[in-house]
Amino acid sequence: MVGDKASVECRHYLCPFTGLERFAEAVRGHWGIENGQHWVLDVQFGEDANRARKDHSAENLALVQRMTMNVIKHNGPSKDSLRRRKLRASLNDGYRYELIFGKPPT
Fold first, then answer.
1. d(Cα 20, Cα 102) in Å, to the nearest integer?
2. How many CB atoms are closer than 10 A to CB 48?
3. Contact 95, 89 (CB under 8 A)
4. Are 76 and 99 in contact (CB under 8 A)?
5. Measured distance CA(47)–CA(65) in Å, rounded
6. Is the dihedral of CA 82, 63, 98, 35 positive or negative?
7. 27: Cβ contacts below 8 Å, ≥ 6 apart
């Protein structure tokens, strides 16, 4: 609502779901993943405080941050927090090598 004027938006979706419940579940699932990823990127990587604006720097940085988050999230001891894994990767060359290449250096 803007001032005295109210507006209504209607969106149409093409999907294989016949029931409203199934569609709502799929939408909530998508936004749950999206919101969870955004929260991690903002808290762990300070994405909202980023001021990269020149050319494609913001897109490139966002891509690198997402790749880094996925590598760190899916490797290493599951009991360790993302923050701890990130810290370990920044301080330990062997651990960082293992995250990137999948095996310890010889």
1. 44
2. 9
3. yes
4. yes
5. 9
6. positive
7. none
